Structures are given as C-alpha cells and as structure tokens.
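Long-time lurker, first post. I've been practising inverse folding by hand and with some scripts of my own, and I keep getting stuck on stretches where the structure tokens seem ambiguous. Below is the full token string for one chain I'm working on. Before anyone asks, I'm not after the true native sequence, just a reasonable design that respects the backbone. If someone could post their per-position residues I'd love to compare against what I wrote down in my notebook.
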C-alpha cells in the first residue's frame, strides 16, 4: 500500500493521525519482537506532549493518630511542607513521543536502539525542533542506533537537515531543498580511521509511494532490517484504511 497523507483531507477527515501513528509504532514493535534474537525486546512508547504530569501544589494539614495513655488515640496535626519559592521558571518543551525502543537484557533492560515517528508538534516551533534534535543527538552520542521517519505533510521543517546544521555540517549530509518527507537511519560507530561518527542512510519519501527498508544498528549487537512499509501496511489494515 502506498503512503497516504494523514494530515489533510480526505484521510484526515476519516481517521485521526494520532491514532494511526500510535498503531504504526506498535506494528513496528510487534514486527521487531517477532524477529529479534534472544536477549532483545522492543516496546512502543506513545505520549502526546511528553510524560510530565501537571503539578498542582497543595497546602494542607494531615492528621496522624498515635495511641494515648488511656488507650484512646491522640491526634497530632502535621503540616505539609510548602514548596520552596521559585525565583525563575525556565521554558522547556516536552515533546510528543511516537517511538519504538529496543532493549538488550543481559544485565537488565538496556536501551540499544530507537525509532522515532515525527509528529507535527515535533516540528512546529523552533524550541520543539531543538528538543527533538537534542533527544536524537543524545541517543547517537550514547552509541544508540536511531531511525527517524517523518511523514508529516502539514509542517515544512526538515529535522534531519536542522540536526546536520546544528553540529556544523552541510553537504552531502543534507536532503535536496524542499524535501519534507523522509526517513534516515543513523549508525553510530567508532573506528581508528574515522574516530567517533555516525554513518547514515537517508531516503526521501513521497505520498503515493512505498516506504523503504532501512538498517537499524543496535548498540553492541546486530543490525536489523527495518521494513517500514510492511509495518505501515499492517497499521493501515488494522485501521481499516
């Protein structure tokens, strides 16, 4: 099945993109779990607006009962400590997460690979794009293999190109101008000849065309062939699209 535009009619009038992105992430995790070697597993993580909860401060008193000398209960009122006075509040962005994480289990679950499905909110503001880029670079500098897939047609920013420019690079690492949809596989490596670096394979995507197969390199482990199209088709079938 070819790639659809999930962010404009007619598809957006029939299905919510958030639901489809979540289903696609789970289809990718399921496909990986069917083929991963022993000692590895994958999980889908879907969160709109990050995992941080709204913090509502409360100031009250709690009663704690203790036995009294006559066998009754003496009640002591303990004040709940007030939070410290905040002098400054630093703006942050808690990004959407449509992500598949891969773990190795020999010494407890250890993150070794990740797949990021870009959301509109990941690329709608400069601060949101910086948050996504920082997260991606954090994975890569830990040697964690990463695949980023961007099928968002309602935002024009190219997060891969912004990442490349962030670290001071240009051609040939950039996509051709006006490339809005793309997928990139990043393979962190350390070699005597090139030192620390990330090899990458990038593919421009098109609505109406099939999605590619890309390598996903697991830190300290094997390299997988990630069939984006098969998982996308499975998600479409389950969504009855």
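-- Answer (accepted) --
I ran through it position by position. Result:
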């Amino acid at each position: 099945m070819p790639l659809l535009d999930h962010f404009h009619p007619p598809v957006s009038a029939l299905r919510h993109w958030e639901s489809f992105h979540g289903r696609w992430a789970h289809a990718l995790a399921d496909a990986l779990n069917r083929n991963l070697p022993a000692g590895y597993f994958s999980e889908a993580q879907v969160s709109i607006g990050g995992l941080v909860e709204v913090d509502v401060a409360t100031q009250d008193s709690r009663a704690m009962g203790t036995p009294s000398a006559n066998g009754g209960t003496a009640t002591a009122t303990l004040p709940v400590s007030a939070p410290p006075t905040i002098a400054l509040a630093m703006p942050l962005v808690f990004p959407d997460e449509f992500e598949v994480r891969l773990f190795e289990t020999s010494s407890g679950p250890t993150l070794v690979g990740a797949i990021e499905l870009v959301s509109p909110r990941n690329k709608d503001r400069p601060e949101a794009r910086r948050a996504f880029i920082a997260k991606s670079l954090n994975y890569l500098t830990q040697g964690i293999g990463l695949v980023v897939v961007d099928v968002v047609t309602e935002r024009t920013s190219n997060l891969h190109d912004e990442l490349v420019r962030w670290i001071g690079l240009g051609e040939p690492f950039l996509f051709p101008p006006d490339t809005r949809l793309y997928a990139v596989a990043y393979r962190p490596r350390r070699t005597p000849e090139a030192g620390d670096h990330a090899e990458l394979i990038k593919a421009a995507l098109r609505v109406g065309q099939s999605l590619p197969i890309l390598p996903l390199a697991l830190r300290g482990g094997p390299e997988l062939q990630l069939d984006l199209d098969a998982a996308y088709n499975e998600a479409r079938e389950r969504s009855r699209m």
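A couple of notes from the structure itself: Residues 17-35 form the longest helix (19 residues). Helices lie at 11-14, 17-35, 126-141, 159-166, 228-238. Happy to go over any region you disagree with.
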